[in-house]
Write a structure and sequence with these properties.
The protein is α+β, with helices and mostly antiparallel strands. 14% of the residues lie in helices and 29% in strands. The chain has helices spanning 6-16, 22-25, 72-77, 182-188, 251-259, and strands at residues 37-38, 47-52, 55-62, 67-70, 86-89, 99-108, 122-126, 140-141, 153-158, 173-180, 198-202, 218-221, 224-231, 242-246. The structure holds 2-acetamido-2-deoxy-beta-D-glucopyranose (3 copies). The site of one 2-acetamido-2-deoxy-beta-D-glucopyranose (NAG) has 2 residues, from loops. Pfam families: Trypsin.
Length: 262
């Protein structure tokens, strides 16, 4: 399963639309912050919650005063829902604090493939500009083609489950993970599952990880956004690193999407 709050989303969507694309919601991946700590929004001021009718379904990151970066699979889930996506910015709590914005439109990477989860990035443009401050601030994206050696320390944050089959957390949590380089990561998965648009991070023993509800959220190294929570098998399992969209290889789409004027 992908790392969205699938249960909430399934419940929510099935009320309105019958299942033509529900099957797509349950691919062979499990979603994933396991082993994390409660965190202040001031330490992760780019973190946002994507909601529909007040239900959190994914995370995202502020990348400009009008744009949120998230996972394509998050946007794919709600593509047939007519109401705007609500974006809560500047709060560590899901249901209060900060400020709510609506989406004005969304863009999904044109090569996004729901079956393989390749090119798992999308952008939400907001209906009005964000006032940036200590609790809401855009994060810079990693330089194009930049890669990081195994064991580089990275941070993840979100409101996702604290354990496999857990529940959405009302307060933001974060944890520390280690990058696993491309060649090594491929060995943990089946041939062809890991593309160059993916980046792996985790801990050899499991322990800290992303989980359901963290999808779309940030993977950060030295205050630069390098990844977006994408998919994994279970959460916090030993030898099962989580997979993130590799932004160093997806910059072209992001830069263009931000430049487009609507
Ligand atoms: C978002 O849109 C909904 C309905 O489409 C509207 O009721 C609400 O006031 C809007 N909220 C903001 C913050 O723009
Ligand atoms: C933002 O943080 C800085 C440093 O902690 C502080 O000096 C400043 O007063 C804060 N600004 C606001 C608007 O809270
Ligand atoms: C990144 O790699 C691509 C493909 O190899 C290349 O075309 C592009 O110029 C590189 N960009 C930078 C900034 O090095």
């Amino acid at each position: 399963m992908v790392k969205v709050n699938t249960l909430f989303l399934l419940a929510f969507i099935s009320l309105m639309y019958i299942n033509s694309y529900l099957n797509e919601l349950i691919p062979s991946f499990e979603n994933r912050i396991v082993g994390g700590l409660p965190s202040s929004i001031k330490d992760f001021p780019w973190q946002v919650s994507l909601q529909m009718r007040g239900l959190h379904f994914c995370g995202g990151s502020i990348i400009s005063n009008l744009h949120i970066l998230t996972a394509a699979h998050c946007l794919h889930l709600v593509k047939n829902v007519e109401s705007p996506i609500e974006v809560r910015i500047g709060s560590r709590k899901l249901h209060k604090g900060g400020k709510l914005y609506n989406s004005s439109y969304v863009m999904v990477h044109p090569l996004y493939n729901p079956k393989s989860t390749n090119f798992d990035v999308g952008i939400i443009k907001l209906n009005k500009p964000i006032k940036q401050g200590n609790t809401s601030r855009a994060i810079q994206i990693v330089d194009e083609n930049k890669s990081f050696p195994t064991n580089t320390i990275a941070y993840i944050s979100g409101w996702g489950h604290k354990k496999e089959n857990g529940e959405i957390q009302d307060k933001l949590r974060s944890s520390r993970v280690k990058i696993i380089d491309y060649t090594l990561c491929k060995k943990y998965f089946k041939p062809g599952e890991i593309s160059e648009n993916m980046l792996c991070a985790g801990n050899p023993t499991g322990e800290t990880d992303s989980c359901q509800g963290d999808s779309g959220g940030p993977l950060v190294i030295q205050n630069k956004l390098v990844g977006v929570v994408s998919w994994g098998i279970g959460c916090g399992r030993p030898y099962r690193p989580a997979v993130y969209a590799n932004l160093a290889n997806l910059r072209q789409f992001i830069d263009e999407a931000i430049r487009i004027k609507y």
